C-alpha cells in the first residue's frame, strides 16, 4: 500500500510540474474584455509574465513580448521569478523522490539513505508549493483590489485569468504530494526504530540478569538451636 502511495506521489509530482510550466508560459494571468464608450469597439487583452496579447473586434489576436522587465508591475515581476524557481524545485524534487521510493534501486538498498532522500523530496515539494502559491495569490489579490477600487478607471481594471486558477490547483497538488512523501517517511522511520527498541530492551534484560546477585538462605542461630534440641 505504501509503495502505491509513493507511486501516486510521483504521478502527482509530474502533474505539478506540467502545471507550473503551464502557468509560467500562459499569457492569461490578467484578462480584460470590455466594450468601449462608443459600444462598437470590442477589445480583449491578456497579460502574462512574458508577453501580452491583444485583439480588437474581429482582428486576429496579436501577442508581443515585453520590451523590458521594468515595465511590469511588482507582482508580475515577482511572479516571473518565483514560478521559474518553482519549476526548478519540482524537477529536483521529482528526481530526489524517485530515488527515495521503495522500488528504486538507488542508494544500494540502504534504507536509511532512502528515508533521508524521501524526506528531502517531500520538503522540496512543500517549498515549491509556496513558490507557486505566493505569486498566484499576490496577483489575484491585486486584480480583485483594483477591480473594486473606484479610483481605478474602468479601462485599467482586469479580471482573474485562467492561469491563476490553474496555479491554485497546481499548488494544491504540490502540497498533497509533499504531505504524502513526508507521511511515508514518518512510517518508514518508525519501522526503522522498532528493531533498535527491541534490541535495547533485550540487552537491558540481559544486563539485569548478569548484574543480579543470588542470595543463599542461611539458617539462623535460633533454627540451629531448635535442631540441636
Main attributes of the structure:
229 residues, alpha+beta, Butyryl-CoA Dehydrogenase, subunit A, domain 3, 5-stranded antiparallel beta sheet, 64% helix, elongated, disordered C terminus
List the helices and strands and how they pair.
Layout lengths: L1 H24 L4 E6 L6 E6 L3 E6 L5 E4 L8 H27 L10 H37 L11 E2 L1 H50 L9 H8 L1
Antiparallel strand pairs: 1-2, 1-5, 2-3, 3-4
Helix pairs in contact: 1-2, 1-4, 2-3, 3-4
Strand arrangement in the largest pleated sheet: 4-3-2-1-5
Q: State the helix count.
A: 5
Query: Which secondary-structure class do the elements indicate?
Result: alpha+beta
Rounded mean pLDDT score: 79
**Which stretches of 5+ consecutive residues score pLDDT under 50?**
195-201, 222-229
Protein described:
With 229 residues, the protein is of the alpha+beta class. It has a domain of 146 residues: Up-down Bundle (Butyryl-CoA Dehydrogenase, subunit A, domain 3), CATH 1.20.140. It is 64% helix and 10% strand. Strands 4-3-2-1-5 form a 5-stranded antiparallel β-sheet. α1 runs antiparallel to α2 and α3 packs antiparallel against α4. It is elongated, with a radius of gyration of 33 Å. It starts with a helix and ends with a helix. The relative contact order is 0.15.
Amino acid at each position: 500500500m505504501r509503495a502505491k502511495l509513493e507511486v501516486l506521489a510521483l504521478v502527482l509530482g509530474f502533474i505539478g510540474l506540467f502545471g507550473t510550466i503551464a502557468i509560467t508560459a500562459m499569457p492569461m494571468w490578467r484578462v480584460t474584455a470590455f466594450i468601449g464608450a462608443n459600444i462598437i469597439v470590442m477589445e480583449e487583452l491578456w497579460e502574462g509574465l512574458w508577453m501580452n496579447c491583444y485583439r480588437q473586434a474581429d482582428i486576429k489576436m496579436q501577442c508581443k513580448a515585453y520590451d523590458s522587465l521594468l515595465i511590469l508591475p511588482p507582482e508580475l515581476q515577482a511572479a516571473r521569478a518565483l514560478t521559474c524557481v518553482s519549476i526548478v524545485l519540482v524537477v529536483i524534487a521529482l528526481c530526489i523522490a524517485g530515488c527515495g521510493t521503495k522500488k528504486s534501486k538507488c542508494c544500494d538498498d540502504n534504507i536509511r539513505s532512502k528515508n533521508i532522500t524521501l524526506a528531502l523530496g517531500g520538503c522540496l515539494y512543500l517549498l515549491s508549493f509556496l513558490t507557486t502559491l505566493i505569486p498566484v495569490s499576490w496577483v489575484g489579490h491585486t486584480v480583485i483590489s483594483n477591480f473594486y477600487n473606484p479610483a481605478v478607471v474602468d479601462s485599467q481594471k482586469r479580471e482573474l485569468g485562467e492561469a491563476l486558477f490553474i496555479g491554485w490547483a497546481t499548488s494544491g497538488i504540490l502540497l498533497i504530494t509533499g504531505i504524502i512523501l513526508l507521511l511515508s517517511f514518518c512510517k518508514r522511520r518508525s519501522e526503522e526504530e522498532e528493531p533498535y527498541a527491541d534490541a535495547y530492551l533485550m540487552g537491558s534484560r540481559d544486563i539485569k540478569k548478569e548484574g543480579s546477585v543470588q542470595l543463599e538462605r542461611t539458617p539462623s542461630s535460633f533454627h540451629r538451636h531448635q535442631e540441636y534440641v
